Amino acid sequence: MQWLKLKLPFIYLICTVTWATAWANLERDPNGYLTYCPCMGRFGNQADHFLGSLAFAKGLNRTLILPPWVEYRKGEMRSRQVPFNTYFDVEPLKDYHRVILMSDFMWHLADDVWPESERVSFCYMERKSLQQDKNDPDQPNCHAKDGNPFGPFWDTYNIEFVKSEFYGPLHFDVHHSTMATKWQSKYPAESWPVLAFTGAPASFPVQLENRELQKHMQWSAKYRDAARDFIRKVLPRGAFVGIHLRNGIDWVRACEHVKDSQHLFASPQCLGYKNERGALYPELCMQTKESIVRQLKRTIKNVRQTQPNNEIKSVFVASDANHMIGELNVALSRMGISVHRLPEDDPYLDLAILGQSNHFIGNCISSYSAFVKRERDSHGFPSYFWSFPKEKDRQQSKAHEEL
Ligand code: GFB
Question: Whose CA is nearest to atom 33 of ligand 1?
Answer without folding.
Answer: 41
